[in-house]
Amino acid sequence: MVDDPNTPRPNPFSDVPIEIKVTVGRAHPLVRDLLKLENDSVLTLDRRVEDPVELYVGEKLIARGELQEVEGDTTGQLAVRLTEVADIKNEL
């Protein structure tokens, strides 16, 4: 049987797992302050609790969202509800 050239072929990379980093915020301490960190130290971030988190693949920002607890999960599992997604399909 001959393949129909109009039938889209599955992308061979669609089953490859990737790592997505979720960034809650950044800190900019001085080295002397970093060296003083110990258990129970507080490191202030540049974000507030209600600010969106950012999702990255490598160094590429792909989405923003809100942290939330997985519904029905009693262990406190975190998830991200996406509120803004980059148009990555057209950037490849």
Structure description:
- With 92 residues, the chain is mostly beta strands.
- The protein has a single domain, classed as SpoA-like (Surface presentation of antigens (SPOA)), CATH 2.30.330.10.
- 5% of the residues lie in helices and 28% in strands.
- The protein is built from 1 helix and 4 strands, in the order βαβββ.
- It has a 4-stranded antiparallel sheet, with no helix packed on it.
- It is elongated, with a radius of gyration of 20 Å.
- The two termini are 32 Å apart.
- The model has no long low-confidence stretch (mean pLDDT 88).
Précis, in short:
With 92 residues, this protein is mainly β.
Number of domains: 1
Helix content: under 10%
Relevant CATH superfamily: SpoA-like
Structural class of the helices, strands and pairings?
Answer: mainly beta
Instruction: Outline the low-pLDDT stretches.
Output: none
Termini separation: 32 Å
Radius of gyration: 20 Å
The CATH architecture comes to Roll
Number of strands: 4
Q: Number of helical runs?
A: 1
Largest sheet: 4 strands, antiparallel
For the biggest β-sheet, the strand order reads 1-2-3-4
Please, what is the average pLDDT?
88
Question: H/E series, N to C?
Answer: EHEEE
How does the overall form come out from the CA principal axes?
A: elongated
CATH topology: Surface presentation of antigens (SPOA)
Report strand %.
25-35%
